[in-house]
Amino acid sequence: MQAVSSYYTTAPVGGPQQPDYVNAVCIVESELPALDLLSVMHGIEKTLGRQRNERWGPRTIDLDLIQYGSIISHSEELELPHPRAHERRFVLEPWCEVDPAAILLTHGPIKQLLAQLPDRP
């Protein structure tokens, strides 16, 4: 693990009534192929009690692979970079904290993307 952001509390948008989320970004280095890393992440979610019952529903944990090196993928199993990362403050804000020079491959510098978002959510 190369860096971990602060925690950011975010109210859920859409879906059923549920508690706020706690969001963070971790920058990790791995030699695993992207799909294998995603599988490891899903295993961690399962170990921590994640059940995938309801789309956009409450969850104990939700790990997302936002970007993986210079890989661009539009497969059914994994879309990289994450297709909505550029419009999510709860992704861009902690990411900018740990790597302000980062560039989202499909949309540009995350610092610029963050500046273009409305204040909340």
Question: What does it look like?
Answer:
It is an enzyme of class 2 (transferase). Keywords: ATP-binding, Folate biosynthesis, Kinase, Nucleotide-binding, Transferase. By secondary structure, the chain is of the alpha+beta class. The protein has one domain (3-116): Alpha-Beta Plaits (2-Layer Sandwich), CATH 3.30.70.560. Helices cover 26% and strands 15% of the residues. The chain has three helices and eight strands. The chain has a two-stranded antiparallel ribbon with strand order 1-4. A two-stranded antiparallel sheet has the order 2-3. β5 (73-74) and β6 form a beta hairpin. α2 (89-98) crosses α3 (110-116). The two termini are 28 Å apart.
Draw up the topology in text.
Blueprint (H helix, E strand, L loop, with lengths): L2 E2 L3 E3 L10 E3 L2 E2 L6 H14 L25 E2 L4 E2 L8 H10 L4 E2 L3 E2 H7 L5
Antiparallel strand pairs: 1-4, 2-3, 5-6, 7-8
List its traits.
single chain, 121 residues, alpha+beta, Alpha-Beta Plaits, two-stranded antiparallel sheet, 26% helix, ATP-binding, 2-amino-4-hydroxy-6-hydroxymethyldihydropteridine diphosphokinase
Brief overview, please?
The chain has 121 residues and is of the alpha+beta class. Helices cover 26% and strands 15% of the residues.
